[in-house]
Structures are given as structure tokens and as C-alpha cells.
């Protein structure tokens, strides 16, 4: 039996912050969470068999769950490369991400199919303690609006149907969890009604009006994809997708909190209106994350990365190079909220949405020991994946 005790940290739980807290990990699971000097309770013999991690007063959070990420560290899920996914997954631990949804792009059905079967194949063989875990797929397109493609390829936009989605899901071996779609296009509402219990439908890359957005919610749509990007904006006589997103309690919203995709004040407005239970911090990162500035490919289009921004030649934003820990740091700066309420927008909300909160998403007995230790600047010091320690920064 492998045992680890992390002690002397601020432990963030569903019941609040535990100062001077400890976490006892057994065989990759959290066995006990408490306050005080747990080490003293062990006899000399026990201590020899337990790995001790002194958190030195830093913050201990649940491992981050990124539900919208295309790639990073030179890799992209659309490359359909086994080694590429492995490298991406391993690298993601450095930003505290312990689980993610590999996210595809609007591309030819052939390319999407290749990417999906590669993810399905990889996920069956993936390491659960040396790499962030692929817990599913976010299918971003091709069922979007050609009028709001953003950096998706307009040539490959398709109309949705249950049959098309079922075929893709079969290729993906059941891993597709979220589908970004435009609710106003032909066939969208029928498909939504048909499949709403099998997938999370996320409204994005859309010119839906306020009313059309709410109609989609009535029909079972649950999420907004990257709020403020590639959707109809707020106008005071036509509040659009943003207005519906702000007001509907049934809608949970993703946000790219890099300070480029949305103004800090716009992020703060969204946070005030959605609160910490209906907000998902995402990166929407592309392959240039963690890489030097330069030219990169995103779904068959050239992207220029410079000064923290990734853009197509015409200036369109093309994914981000954000890390989850930087996003959380930004969110702390952009809102008046403290870590005590903000931590859950990086983990627990996502776990609940994906229905995996029995094993992931918070620091609680019997859940997987997926944790991240961060300092006040939210730099990742150590990531614990399934009980295994990965150090990134000296204490
Ligand atoms: Zn997008
Ligand atoms: Zn995306």
C-alpha cells in the first residue's frame, strides 16, 4: 500500500478552507482530510512507510479540470497522434491540470474521425498517474454557424443531425461529453431534443438571438462555450447570447480568462451574474501554449503567436495560450472573490457537469488524489496525480 501525507497547507474543501490542514492519501485515493499535525499521530514505524510532503503553508486545491482545450506544448488533438496526446497530457500536469476534455475543431469529417479514434485509442492506454487524464471529448463544431466561425474553418461547417452525432460518438467510443453548437441553424433544435440526455449541448459559434438562446435552453442546452467570443453580443434592445447567458440560471458558462479574449471588467460582470457555481474557467488553448512566439497551425489555418495572443492573419483570435493556473490567477485579480470561493470554477463545477463528482472535483474522502499545490501567485509548485507527486517549482 502506498501512502502519502501532505501537511501544513491551506486545504480548500466544499466546507471551506482548512488552515494548517493535511491530506492523507492511500493508493491514489484521498483517505482523510483534517486539521493539525497528523504526522504526530503516526508511530515511528508508520512514518517510515509514508511519503511526507510539507506544503509549507501554500494552498492545496483539487486538480484542475479543463473542459475546453485543443492543445498546447506543440501538440493538438486534431493531429490525431498518440504520442502527441501523451506529450500534451504529461505537460498539462505542470499547470495543475489533472483531467481534461480533448477538444476537436471544425474540420473535414475525415479529419474529425481520425482525431476521435486516436483519442479513444489513447484514452484506453493512458497513464493515470504520470499524465493529466483525458476524461472525454469536447466536440467544437462542425455544427456551428458559418457566420461566427472565429478561428474554426468555415469550409467545413455542417448542419447537425442525430445520426451524424451518433456516428461520431461511436467512433469516439462514447467519449464525447460536450458538443458546441449553434442552436439557430437548421436541424439544431431537433437534434438537441433527441440527444439532450446523452450529451451536454453548449451554445457557441452562433448568431442566436436572446429568444433563440432561451428557446435552446428550454429544449435542453446547458452550457455557453467561451462566453463573449464568437456569439451575438449584448445590445440593449437585443441582449443576444450574452444577455441570455447572464440571466438564465440553467446556463453554465465557460470563460477564457486570459485578459485578451474578454476585458477583465466583462469577466467580472459574468462572475457577478453567474456566481461561483455556474462558471467554468477554461483555457481553449492551442498548440503554441508553453512554446515560443512564432507561426503555428490551428485546424489547417496559420496562427501568429505574439505577446500572449494567438491570431489568424486577419486578426481573428485563434485560441489562447493560457494555462489553468494563470487563468485562476487572473480571475482572482479581475473579481473581488477570494480563492475560498473561486477554486470550484476550476474543478468542482466541471466534475458535477460531467457527472464524475463522485471521484473528482474536490478534496474529499474517497475521491481520487488529484491535487495541486500553488503559492499566492497561483504558480504550480507540485501536482499530485492519482497520489503521485510531480514537482514543478522549488518551495
Ligand atoms: Zn471556439
Ligand atoms: Zn475552442
Automatic annotation (TrEMBL):
<dbReference type="GO" id="GO:0046872">
    <property type="term" value="F:metal ion binding"/>
</dbReference>
<protein>
    <recommendedName>
        <fullName>N-acetylglucosamine-6-phosphate deacetylase</fullName>
        <ecNumber>3.5.1.25</ecNumber>
    </recommendedName>
</protein>
<keyword id="KW-0479">Metal-binding</keyword>
<feature type="binding site">
    <location>
        <position position="226"/>
    </location>
    <ligand>
        <name>Zn(2+)</name>
    </ligand>
</feature>
<dbReference type="Pfam" id="PF01979">
    <property type="entry name" value="Amidohydro_1"/>
</dbReference>
<feature type="binding site">
    <location>
        <position position="151"/>
    </location>
    <ligand>
        <name>substrate</name>
    </ligand>
</feature>
<keyword id="KW-0119">Carbohydrate metabolism</keyword>
<comment type="similarity">
    <text>Belongs to the metallo-dependent hydrolases superfamily. NagA family.</text>
</comment>
<dbReference type="InterPro" id="IPR032466">
    <property type="entry name" value="Metal_Hydrolase"/>
</dbReference>
<feature type="binding site">
    <location>
        <begin position="229"/>
        <end position="230"/>
    </location>
    <ligand>
        <name>substrate</name>
    </ligand>
</feature>
<feature type="domain" description="Amidohydrolase-related">
    <location>
        <begin position="60"/>
        <end position="388"/>
    </location>
</feature>
<dbReference type="InterPro" id="IPR003764">
    <property type="entry name" value="GlcNAc_6-P_deAcase"/>
</dbReference>
<dbReference type="InterPro" id="IPR011059">
    <property type="entry name" value="Metal-dep_hydrolase_composite"/>
</dbReference>
<dbReference type="GO" id="GO:0008448">
    <property type="term" value="F:N-acetylglucosamine-6-phosphate deacetylase activity"/>
</dbReference>
<keyword id="KW-0378">Hydrolase</keyword>
<feature type="binding site">
    <location>
        <position position="140"/>
    </location>
    <ligand>
        <name>Zn(2+)</name>
    </ligand>
</feature>
<feature type="binding site">
    <location>
        <position position="237"/>
    </location>
    <ligand>
        <name>substrate</name>
    </ligand>
</feature>
<feature type="binding site">
    <location>
        <position position="205"/>
    </location>
    <ligand>
        <name>Zn(2+)</name>
    </ligand>
</feature>
<dbReference type="InterPro" id="IPR006680">
    <property type="entry name" value="Amidohydro-rel"/>
</dbReference>
<dbReference type="GO" id="GO:0006046">
    <property type="term" value="P:N-acetylglucosamine catabolic process"/>
</dbReference>
<feature type="binding site">
    <location>
        <position position="261"/>
    </location>
    <ligand>
        <name>substrate</name>
    </ligand>
</feature>
<comment type="pathway">
    <text>Amino-sugar metabolism; N-acetylneuraminate degradation; D-fructose 6-phosphate from N-acetylneuraminate: step 4/5.</text>
</comment>
<feature type="binding site">
    <location>
        <begin position="317"/>
        <end position="319"/>
    </location>
    <ligand>
        <name>substrate</name>
    </ligand>
</feature>
<feature type="active site" description="Proton donor/acceptor">
    <location>
        <position position="284"/>
    </location>
</feature>
